[in-house]
Amino acid sequence: MRVVAAIAGLTLIGLMLSEFFVTFMLPRRVRRDPRIARGLNRALWRPWRAVAARLSVSSADTFLGLFGPLALLSQLLVWTVGLIIGFALLEWAAVGGGFGHGLLFSSGLFLSAEGASGSTIVHVIALFEAAIAIGVLFIVIGYLPAVYGSFSRREIAVSQLATRAGSPPAAGVILYRAAGRERWLGLEQELRAWEEWAAELMETHLSYPILGFYRSQHVKQNWLAALTAMVDVAAFVTAVEADGEVEAAELTFAIGQHALADLAHQYRVKPGPVDRLPEETFDKLYNRVEDSLSAPVARDEALARLTELRRAYEPKAQALSQLLALDLPGWLPADAEREGLMRLPGVRVGRDRRDLVG
Fold this sequence. Notes:
Order of helices and strands: HHHHHHHHHHHHHH
Low-confidence stretches: none
């Protein structure tokens, strides 16, 4: 029986350390998502999202925003308890006695609240347990600043986009304001900045999948809406200009749709059909920017090109939206003309605190 307990303890310790290493230390590829962390997140997220659906919009966003930090703490708790139980099994296999007492003894050692006593083998096991506990603590101390630093950089870009594209962001607002030859050329600089942001977002959210559950400070803003709006703009510019005329837009679209594809795979979602751009909205946008184009594509061809480009990313964005309960933006805000958002040099963001979470 003790041999079985020792094998079970070693197996449990190995499993917990492997999961901990993959989650906290390994900048993994998409397929390297740890099973325990992913399963725990999904098991907790579904009922959490169901409860949020019964709340008001602001309360639901606040409630959903609690999930990311709590899920991270839950993962740490599961790994810590698993390690304590694993070492308790080893210690019980070594010296016998009551398992409950061994579990308390293991907990005290892991939390540095108790010293080892007894045979040499117990001292050796206690030494390894204490060393692993200290290592876990230091790794977590280093991990949290990396996660929250990535979150902060992401949200800076989300907030900056809100002043240019509205809240929630809409590609049409940016395209309307880019009309005019000089402004259209200036859009290239923004596209290059978005390319860098999309690449960083992809890398950080693949390395730290828990970040996808961290929500923005404002109800109408979120990272998925910002990424989708950026890709919308890049896709539209790529479609209406002749090939090779807008390299910045083509590169931004490539990295943006790549990010959405990898994130859809990371979060195990199944893309489905979606159409976010009515033809009349396309006509309105095309007519607005047509005189600004350096090598315009005919209207029908541009629509066909844009439809093909949208098929590469919109289904994935929609699937992520449904899983994470993050709203996707429209191409034009519903009240754009009434509010005058297309004409003002800035958008009406932050003029009151009604959309602030909390």
